[in-house]
Amino acid sequence: MSIPFEYLLKAGERIRPYVRKTPVKSFETLNDFFKSQVYFKCENFQEAGAFKFRGATNAVLKLKKEEAVKGVATHSSGNHAAALALAAKNIGIAAYIVMPSNASTIKIENVRKFGGEITFCGPTLEAREEMLEQVVKKTGATFIHPYDLDDIVCGQGTAAFELVEESGPFDVVMAPVGGGGLLSGTAIAVKHLDPSCLVVGGEPANADDARKSFLAGELIPQRNPNTIADGLRTSLGRINFECISRYVDDILTADEDSIREAMVLIRNETGMMVEPSSAVPVGVMLKNRGFFENKKTGIIISGGNISADTFDELVAGH
User: Fold this and answer.
1) Whole-angstrom Cα distance, residue 38 to residue 48?
2) CATH number belonging to domain 5-47+149-314
3) Looking at the domain 53-143, which fold is it?
4) Which pTM was predicted?
5) Cβ(20)–Cβ(116) below 8 Å
6) Which of the four pLDDT bands, split at 50, 70 and 90, describes residue 1?
7) Nearest 5 degrees, angle CA 281-CA 159-CA 310?
């Protein structure tokens, strides 16, 4: 069952007092480099440093009173964790966060800064889910899924809605895809505002379950992904798969070298230091230059929660 566009509009109204209307930026040197017009929706400037705050805020604000008093819980390697912690803090409720032991330091610090109560677990999906089950049983908190939830999808889609409203129409709009919350919301927003616009997902070639699922017409789980784009290692969600199957035109991939090259290109030409996951759509452009030439392309820059040291370590040699 498709998520109605009206739900996304209502989400935008609901979260407006809490979220930033992030800037849309275009850079002449990048436009010349790609021989196209490229517009970045800079969610790296969003509260908590990523687009995830939109969906988390929408989900928290939709809780019933009896649910809210017991708090919220989730498992996340970083950006959803911080986003949910801040969204919960904004309305004065508890946030219980299960994080893998290998989560980045900056993302752990963000969760703590926003008052989230962290429980660490092993670095596997099974370990996350088992620990989350224990936390929910102990606290009675409501589980807010990082991506496979209507309220999350609608919140995330407000970024693309703002992008098209401000700077559209576009020939192509791109978003990175991991679990699929952002791409799902982006596709719903874009296809209702401008049906002729192509919606394209950007995915690491080393974690391409979304592309495989998209082409096969059925969900294909992620298997041991090995990519620097840590936010895109998760398997595509069921709700997200349905939205993507209906509204997305294609999912293209970028190899690890292209992701690193994109990170450096964005930093050098825009001054923005973005996470590997955010750079994937630009990595896709690097691998598919001809497709994007002479097109007006909008890209959701999904997050900027990365330290200078980690950035330099990841792009060493590029």
Assistant:
1) 25
2) 3.40.50.1100
3) Rossmann fold (3.40.50)
4) 0.96
5) no
6) low
7) 50
